[in-house]
Design brief:
The chain has about 110 residues and is mainly α.
């Protein structure tokens, strides 16, 4: 694996880990949304993940089609271009239902 891809995957794990850490003590989407600092920090890390996915080689993404690379990148675009229209419940569901699996999948690649 090229070093650039390895570094990018490690950066994704780091950002995803921050998202999980920042939200671990929050009980629900409403609490998440009302905690402005956490909400902003989490969205920034989602942007970072999307930006980093865009830098991964096509070979790596093609070798792991079970990871929704394009959806991850698209979600970054939604956050970056419609920040005030971001649905906190949708973000919360992604954190709860998809983030742990993404971290596991990327660790498996490494």
């Amino acid at each position: 694996m090229p070093e650039k891809d390895k570094a990018s995957l490690l950066a994704i794990i780091d950002a995803a880990g921050k998202i999980l850490k920042y939200t671990e003590d929050l009980p629900d989407a409403d609490s998440f949304f009302r905690d402005e600092k956490t909400f902003d920090a989490v969205l920034m890390n989602f942007v970072l993940i999307g930006e980093t996915v865009a830098k991964l080689s096509e070979a790596l993404k093609d070798a792991h089609p079970h990871i929704p690379w394009q959806k991850i990148k698209d979600f970054r675009n939604i956050i970056a271009h419609d920040y005030f229209g971001v649905d906190a419940e949708e973000v919360w569901q992604i954190i709860q239902n998809n983030m742990p699996a993404l971290v596991g999948d990327i660790k498996h690649i490494l």
